[in-house]
Amino acid sequence: MTHDTDSVIRTDDLEVTYTGNREITALNGVGVDFAENRLTAIIGPSGCGKSTLLKSLNRLHEIQPNAEITGDVYLEDEPVYDTDEPLPEIRRRVGYVPQKPTPLPVSIYNNVAYGPKIHGDHSREELDEIVETQLRKVNLWDEVKDRLDAPGAELSTGQIQRLCLARSLAAEPDVLLCDEVTSALDPISAEQVEETLADLKEEYTIIMVTHSMEQAKRLADDVIFLYLGDVVETNDARSFFENPQNERTREFVKGHTAVEYDDGEDDVSEGDGSADEVNGDDADGSRSTEETESIPAER
Amino acid sequence: MNRYTEQRIFAFLARASAALILAVLAIVVGVTIYRGGRVFLTDPAVVITPPGSRYMLDGGGGFLHAVLGSLFIVVPATIVAMILSLSTAVYLQSDYSSERTSDVINMFLNVLWGTPPIVYGVFVLTIIIAVGAQTSLIFGVIAIAIFQYPIMTRYADEALRSAPDAVKEASYGLGATRFETAKVTIRAALPGVIAGIIMGFARGIGDAATVLFTAGRSTQMPGGPFDPATTLPILIFEQAASFNAEVRSHAYAASFVLIVAVLALIVASKLLAGRYARFTPGGRQ
After folding, report:
1. How far apart are CA B94 and CA B132, in angstroms?
2. CATH number of the domain encompassing residue A223
3. pLDDT tens digit sequence for B221-274
4. A65 → closest Cβ in B98, B167, B176
5. By residue range, what is the domain housing residue A68?
6. Do the domain assignments include residue A211?
7. pTM (predicted TM-score)
8. SMART domains in the record, alphabetically (chain A) (predicted)?
């Protein structure tokens, strides 16, 4: 990267292969740095390995069978794969917010308190404080403070996604991974989540996968452009969008790469089977095209 | 044939089959309630009275022994089977087993599910003979638990599989261990898991063949886990075959108790499942 901030997490020749019915290489020896307290956006067409790269940072892709990996990820210069540190510890330090807003099947309060509860002993007062602090950080406190014992599932989709953010923050991660966190939301909720992310990037290292060029332009400090498992270009956001170095980046930024989609690879390499991966509209950057699929916003 | 005629015939068949099922159910429940309920109203004490010394001959006393026998056998068996089946079902998920392993285990579970309960009865009987024991309550518990285990495991497995993957992902993403994640997944699948447990309980309380050789056909009050005991289904069989008209009428009273118990369980499971469904993502339809 072109700036001089220290990197918190970096990958070294990371290669991920899915060995299912047919073998698919999702990442092709990727080596990238993610800088501290900056928001890095990973962009690229569907099936190019964005989610795989994101999930491999805290080994979350390992919960899917048939993923093989070589190379390593370094979190503050400690290896993530070649290590004796228990996996849950790594995942606490590198939090993950899923694409589909999913509350844990417990109350709003316990959603946020879950991380602190499993990682240490806290008194009820401490937990109360954590819950309030984190819910305030994601601008949800005022909306839910009177019904903390209600099921998390009863909130609106946008509220749930902010709850998921608060839940991840409560585990006190060093790095926060966000997997297309606004793609399942209606425009207003998406805007609220974006605002929250913009606030959070002051104190957290955030790495987000996004389909939307516009969103990357609005939020990102740095951009990584992935294409079919390779890093094509990484740069700070301004240079990336104003002066792309690579021919393919130029095309993608202008919105031409989108037609070369390979829908078949989608399910396997992205792993979450999300419906909105298959439309070819991400390069045009309009958020509204992505909200037509996935889960309905209202229940 | 005209495609609209075809459609009408099919619609008729579909409605007729639904009506037939409902009618059979209504007749079974109706007859039991009518005939059993009559005994119940005139002499409700039969349920809470221990049997007389010659109960099967003269109908003296009631059938508390079988009511208690059913409870003492099926409740512990359900608890044992629940623990075993939940553990197995968690093990069958992708966190612990490869798809191939869980396919193989599922095949064995299907075989177990399809095994007639009398076979379990005989199997436990050989154990009883081998250890030189007599038919008793505790062996009834073992036989019923073995019988319930595959049923409850299949339900729990299905329920856990249909829990959203994102719940698992979220839990792991927060740094939860596999066990903590399993607890969250069970919580997310709770409506289905409860349905499976209740189904296992209902099947267990209604089964006669497993208990026949293992707990026995005792007509006395069970005093402890090593006493012979009996359950309502076996009692009903014995009562219905009795020469005494009063004992035969008690068979309907016992059926009434059984059917009300099962209906109450199903209602309870619906209420419980509904309570927990509020917490399940997408659970409120």
Report:
1. 43
2. 3.40.50.300
3. 888 889 999 999 999 999 999 998 889 989 999 999 999 999 999 998 889 888
4. B98
5. 7-106+175-290
6. yes
7. 0.81
8. AAA
Nearest beta carbon to residue B281 from set A95, A118, A153: A153
Distance CA A46, CA A180 (A): 12
In a domain, A155, yes or no: no
> pLDDT by residue (tens digit) across A107-156?
999 999 999 999 989 999 999 999 999 999 888 999 999 999 999 999 99
Q: Flag if B283 and A153 touch (Cβ within 8 Å).
A: yes
* CB nearest to A153's CB, from B175, B176, B280: B280
Distance CA B139, CA A124 (A): 46
- Looking up tokens 């980046």 gives A249
CB contact under 8 A, A91 and B170: no
Dist CA A177 CA A196 (whole Å): 14
Beta strand pairing call for A222-227 and A39-43: parallel
Is residue A128 in some structural domain? no
Give A-chain residues touching B169 at CB under 8 angstroms: 60, 63, 96, 98, 102
Sequence-ordered list of residues with C-beta below 8 angstroms from that of A288, at least 6 positions apart, any chain: A187
Considering only the top CATH level, what class is B45-277?
mainly alpha
In a domain, A217, yes or no: yes
The count of domains in chain A is 1
